[in-house]
């Protein structure tokens, strides 16, 4: 018999408020950064912080405004998750639903009540909520008034949010993540940190200053959480995937180490409690001086995370030769084409063994429990007249990644808490704003232009994943 996973392994699925919730102004919610990101040609310039769009216009389509309307359908959606056997549901809070402008003295009760209802619905079925406090989400008012995470004041607003939610949900939520893919602010600064750049300013300095503020905020959240409920488990979250060297030339190997360090930097601070020497030297070389205040270093040192969570979709490939690397420009995570791997329809290279490599790299580096909170295949699904999708390609992708995960646990001894594949129900793509890039076990009738009935239907993978969970990962055929 093939060995599965430990008893209590948290099988489930993952979503984000900004990609599934909709109801973007319902219940007194304020405008969030994702609500002003349109689909189409302006999307990437806005996400990069290069084009300033802090209001909605009548000409553009904004996918987050309705998304898949989880806001009005959460009860039936969670019932479908329960039918699959979920032990865990990873979701996020919309900051602007709780503090519409971000700087109010008191929170919005309607927003708090909505999440009470969602958590109650999860707990009714024995599903543990895993809650991301901030998932590509900043109240637009804070971008306009203080420049979002470029300002130290954001730490205070974030701390207030944390105190409210930790106290309110202390008996309903045990697992928390401070920031989603915290390293994303280096790649898509508006998405990751609400940053909009001014002409002529040092973008690198602004990004790393915002990073410092988020790292301080994360440590503060960890401190507060443990004070309010010592049973809370607080994690950080990394967009992960090891970078391979293009050749065995030592220069290429060194390039791959440097690329990985760009992303490890954040988790090194959150997990080890201090800036690593390579990061200090990098900032020194770039002439970036962080505004580290008295008490910051002590706060970071004394409030490291309990576990490390990450997303894994693909590995990466780099070369030390700038001419070869030119072909990678324009991607969120620059990568060369790996000739040994097949790619998804969106060009993401499929590398199940890369997941095992990533799990081992992270566990060797930190010796803390790991949690895979995103993994999946974005693909075009073609439903039949009843909405059923024969998504064998998705099953194959997930099966091979679960196999790699199982090897990491049972052969290599990696400590793994759970697995929540991304977009367990179809939702809006964060990068492209599309609906046709689907990840879910549940099909949602909606297209890229926002047309459709929003009707939910089960794909073939729904029944397959149900069997995987029932067998605790021992039956993945």
TrEMBL record:
Name of a matching Pfam family: Glyco_hydro_1
Keyword Transport part of the UniProt annotation: no
GO BP annotations listed: carbohydrate catabolic process
InterPro entries given in the database record: GH, GH_1_N_CS, Glyco_hydro_1, Glyco_hydro_1_AS
UniProtKB keywords: Glycosidase, Hydrolase
Record EC number: 3.2.1.86
A Gene Ontology term for the protein's cellular component: cytosol
Signal peptide feature range: none
GO terms assigned for molecular function: 6-phospho-beta-glucosidase activity
Top-level class of the enzyme under EC nomenclature: hydrolase
UniProt superkingdom: Bacteria
Keyword hit for Hydrolase: yes
Recorded family membership: Belongs to the glycosyl hydrolase 1 family.
Identification of the protein by name: Aryl-phospho-beta-D-glucosidase BglH
Annotated organism of origin: Clostridium felsineum
